[in-house]
User: Fold this.
Amino acid sequence: MTIATPLVIAVLGTGPVGRALAGRLGSLGHDVRLGTRDPAATGRREEHRTWHEEHAEVTVATFAEAATDADVVVNACGGEVTLEVLDQVGAELLDGVVLVDVSNPLDFSAGFPPRLSVCNDDSLGEQVQHAFPGARVVKTLNTMNSAVMVDPARLGASASVFVSGDDPDAKAVVARLLREMGHDDVIDLGGITSARGVEMFLPLWLRLAGALGSSEVGIAVVRP
Amino acid sequence: MTIATPLVIAVLGTGPVGRALAGRLGSLGHDVRLGTRDPAATGRREEHRTWHEEHAEVTVATFAEAATDADVVVNACGGEVTLEVLDQVGAELLDGVVLVDVSNPLDFSAGFPPRLSVCNDDSLGEQVQHAFPGARVVKTLNTMNSAVMVDPARLGASASVFVSGDDPDAKAVVARLLREMGHDDVIDLGGITSARGVEMFLPLWLRLAGALGSSEVGIAVVRP
Assistant:
């Protein structure tokens, strides 16, 4: 696929979600930096090194270095550390940036399945927007696992992906990136408060993955 | 479609959901009673009379009369009155019965979209099972509107429907009824605690219906 205009994208978080998104967006031709707490420590991890050999085009840096001059910052950290990691980046670097939040506020302290640490009257997406009012927050991709995020065709049939956010231009940028990654049913749910909907879907997703014995599961919105 | 064995089914609630389910199950050949608080008052309502003319095979009775000797009791009342209505039926009549709960714990007191009155650590399905331990509770159908419940083909593509409950035989009875109504992807999510998943899906469903401008919307679970 040809990229009309490559973007500078910082992906924060070096777990499976961060690696999958950074690798895929880098392969598509974007200028991708992978942000981590301690680049030296990350560089010593075997799974990171194996991944980085295949994605040498991705730069590894601290959270703040990765986000410097980025067009798009992707929060691929766990929900429990999201606000702290974004604090490390700082409000100044996030001002005006398209801030893509793919995290889920999962609380495993009482075992599996996890409960949500925030829901019903608030959401993590809203908390991120509230903490960083200058950022243009878009919640998306939290309704599927990392393999499906970057290769939705692996499900064998078209699944849907949702975007929630208060800034239409930011949602358009994110929708373009989603389509580049293969998502052909991008549904705009409305403002950032609609992040409550996609985050509260997680308990159903977790039960589905358990019932079907696989996290390779998505949902397609069916309408006439 | 030929019904192997007609069941005696009480549908509690004379709103759109109760009318749709009672009418459809009656058309399929089951012995259906529609339960209401005050049969005389219900009989005076124009929308009920119009509906009953087309479904004369359905008996209208009080909640308790409808549930007497029923194989299956369907709670099609609003979430806010569910436990009170089932109290009117009483634990004795519900003992051993397949109790199908299609309600959602929606709280509209703060406007639209509603919040959930229970979620995350509990669900209305679990509260029903806890209040009536002798009933064999199955949560299902709460993830779609009444028209789609009884005619899923109207969506133009196959959507999925979920069953949650602790009694496998009760879930098998419900799965049979769902298939008779046209549902061809019935997914068993596990025990009644999985009702949390399908009830917490409602905030996403409400946002989807708003974004798409229609409540004629379902979800299909996509897996390889």
Summary: Chain A touches chain B through 41 residues (CB under 8 Å). The CA atoms of residues 122 and 196 of chain A lie 6 Å apart. The radius of gyration of chain A is 16 Å. Residues 168-180 of chain A form the longest helix (13 residues).
